[in-house]
Amino acid sequence: MKKTTITRMTLLAACTSMGLWGMTAHAADMGWHGKAEVPRYQEQVFPPWQHGANNPTVKKGLNFTVPEVDDLADFHGSIDHPQLVIFVGGNYFFAMAPLVAAFEKEYPEIKGKIYYETLPPGILIRQMQQGNTITVGNMTWTIQPDVYAAGLKKVNYLIHQGLLQGPAVPYVTNDLTIMIAKGNPAHIETLRDLGKPGIRLSMPDPRWEGVARQIQISLHKAGGPALERMVYDTKVKNGETILTHVHHRQTPLFLMQGLADAGVTWKSEAIFQEQSGHPISNIPIPAKDNTTAIYASAVAKGALHPKWAKDWVNFLRSPVALHIFERYGFKAYHDAK
């Protein structure tokens, strides 16, 4: 059995600010002439947002979490001999805590032995292609996934590429929405409004976030190629569109910091933000302009824990799991027959 390894462990600089990447790049271009100051913000605005609930480890030791500086928000659990390792596209990071708790209730022998990552699907693939090794800040670790979950097309593609074992097992669907700050100060009503001059956007990066392609399809439906080009080309070049690194966390951060007016996300992400009490709202996208995603999972090739991997894949289609997904606006997948 391959042993989980850590090659570098300097935790004090493990993770840079997730909410200020766009600003950091701008500062690097312009030259930074400011000074360090005591933060003047509400810590609860910054991830992780679930107050430790997304860490399935039983014995957590010293809790050293500094919002905006040291938080490692997309890595959950202990890398010390886990019995189930899940790589899941971050579109439902917020649902993983109750899902894991329900799975542990059904299989108590695995309690505290689950590790999972909720990075964008494309970044997870790059991690797998780099020998399952990732570096965040000054920390590098290697961990082999047992399960990979993302969009159905992506999962089928990775099966074809030999990174996953078939079959792909679909379980829920999700629709897009326009995420806005509470009160809608920019008075946005439709997707077409996103193309207006002066409307600042936070949009997922097409290079590693599959949702970007689905958003582009919806923009094309609503306003043709001109709207798609405006949002994903013209506004990117003039600075009115920020392309995110971790879309499911950065868009609400940018909105709450006043750095953006709107961003297209999955409906479930907006629902989670509202349930968390954050000053976030959303504008529904009509069915004729919307795009639906189908989420699926599959066992990873060479999984070290194939029994638990198969149990997790099957669990995602169970009534218990589907009930959890429905809290955030997901819908159960039904085969079109």
UniProtKB/TrEMBL annotation:
Signal sequence coordinates: 1-27
Entry-linked InterPro entries: ModA/WtpA
UniProt entry tagged with the keyword Signal: yes
GO biological process, alphabetically ordered: molybdate ion transport
One matching Pfam family: SBP_bac_11
Transmembrane segments: 84-103
Protein name in UniProt: Periplasmic solute-binding protein
